Amino acid sequence: MAVAERVNGRGRRAGWRDVVLAVGLVGAAVGGLALLARTVWGASSGAFGPAVLVLAVVVLAAVARRAAGRGARPPAPPDDGVSVPAAPAGTPAPAPVEAAVPVLDGDAVDHEQVDPQGFEHTVAALCVRDGCTRTEVSGGPGDLGADVVATTPDGRRLVVQCKQYAADHPVGSRDLQCFGGTCFAVHEAEVAVVVTTSGFTAPAAEYAAALGIVCVDGEALAAWTDGRRPPPWEPAPPPGD
């Protein structure tokens, strides 16, 4: 505010200086013009003197009014743009916000009692428990078979399809073919897994073995949940162990 008042004061003083200077210059010019006219026409041109005087007054008034208008014009306001100060050197960058990951608790172990979406979360929670990072539950319409996507502890991309079926409803070859057509080509899986609460038909198991898809049936899922077998992205134990 003080800076603006000083600027306005300087503007008003400069305006009146312009008025005084303009009046002085016009007065000098009119005086010289009158002296010239008096010399040229002499005293015999008595009517010319008043005419010159009237013209001088009119010109003087017009110039004074114009100069006064310039002096009264408000000065340009000072620059009041708001500048954002730069962050001090050494200021740490804001920490990235990490997406929430599933948490395995006592209620998340019963894979058969949750709904299909809850089953996807229990499988994702197992992945997190066993060291996976960037775990996302992406199941839903248009997921193209990728219900859970994660990164294994050794850095591989894991894509899991979850099938919560009753014990008398095994996963068939059609389910495996649909998943096999997208897990590698679309989702770029390095480890592809199908997890179910039931089992797999023989053709489905053969198709999965041919493509390198890991099948986890209900018995293997229970063993994984209880920690009696390694997670599906690790080598399976030899038969009989």
From TrEMBL:
GO terms for biological process: DNA restriction-modification system. Residues 113-224 form the Restriction endonuclease type IV Mrr domain. Keywords: Membrane, Transmembrane, Transmembrane helix. Residues 69-97 are annotated as: Disordered. One of its GO terms (molecular function) is DNA binding. Gene3D superfamilies: 3.40.1350.10. InterPro entries: Restrct_endonuc-II-like, Restrct_endonuc_IV_Mrr, tRNA_endonuc-like_dom_sf, Type_IV_Methyl-Rstrct_Enzyme. Residues 82-97 have a biased composition (Low complexity). The chain crosses the membrane at residues 20-41, 47-64. Pfam families: Mrr_cat. This is Restriction endonuclease type IV Mrr domain-containing protein. The lineage of its organism: Bacteria, Bacillati, Actinomycetota, Actinomycetes, Kitasatosporales.
